[in-house]
Amino acid sequence: MLFYIVLFLGIISLWWHWRARDRMKVTNLTGKYIFITGCDTGFGNMAAKNFDKKGFRVFASCLTETGAKELKAETSNQLQTVLLDVRDSESVKKVAAWIKAEVQSEGLWGLINNAGIMGPSAPTDWLDIEHFREPIEVNLIGLINVTINMLPLIKQAKGRIVNVSSVGGRLAFSSGGYCPSKFGVEGFNDSLRRDMKVFGVNVSCIQPGLFKTPLSSPVKILKEKEIIWNQLPPSTKKQYGEEYFQKDAAKKEKLTKICLNEDISLVVECMEHALTSLYPRTHYIIGQDAKWFWTPLSKMPAAVQDFLLLRNRAKPAASHAN
């Protein structure tokens, strides 16, 4: 009995020590420079506003002039917006040169690689290579390109890099280019973290579940899928059956309602912890669906994963004939 009491107290002590360590903050961060991509809406938009209020000097990249204008109108004069398409290498280089001129010898304390798109989500045999290319170029190649161009400034400040991945980088819950791009982000993040450790640069990975943002809009995803369906050859439509599209949409809608997290501030809080904690975590798993379903499922045997994920897909007509 004494052994179990000592063991219990030991576990409680370790947990308390971890919690205390987790709350320790880096001092004198006011006025530090950070760069955030993808600030038109969603996580990036809220993050830019949050860090601006906290006293950071924020460079916020937006894809559209409208997004940049609206963000600027809601923030202080200290926040600066810049138009950037992360797929455009020349644009990335120009933004990096501009930031270098702004930060000068101080360097860049934080880089948050947040820009991303979902891309079409549909069965693989509905898609062509271009459907895969766009999310991979934005979510992975664009993220790597921005990081490479900002690394000298981050190393100069011995700062932080935060890469926004997804539970889709741990478990391929949908078809299309999104999950392959996020699996790539996970691999790049891990190698980058090890490479930068010796330089005093901390690298963290954000792994959100399904959150209510324009990226994961069910209406947008369904519309993109319907366009692809309407362009399919008759032979493919016959294999799936005319009722497939609606039946699958109903199943996806049901799963979305179960998994959807509405409070996106949870993601921004993790970004803040990664940039301000004395001991940032290597990974942040965010959302009840991510913590209790997607992440545990990602560690299970493939047979279990397939069984559960296929239950949330409609069966093609051809499968009934076999």
TrEMBL record:
KW Oxidoreductase (keyword) present: yes
Keywords of the record: Oxidoreductase
Keyword set includes Disulfide bond: no
GO MF term set: oxidoreductase activity
Family to which this protein belongs: Belongs to the short-chain dehydrogenases/reductases (SDR) family.
Signal peptide, first to last residue: none
Xref: InterPro entries: NAD(P)-bd_dom_sf (IPR036291), SDR_fam (IPR002347)
Name of this chain's protein: Dehydrogenase/reductase 9
Domain of life: Eukaryota
Gene3D superfamilies documented for this protein: NAD(P)-binding Rossmann-like Domain
SUPFAM superfamilies to which the protein is assigned, alphabetical: NAD(P)-binding Rossmann-fold domains (SSF51735)
GO biological process terms on file: steroid metabolic process
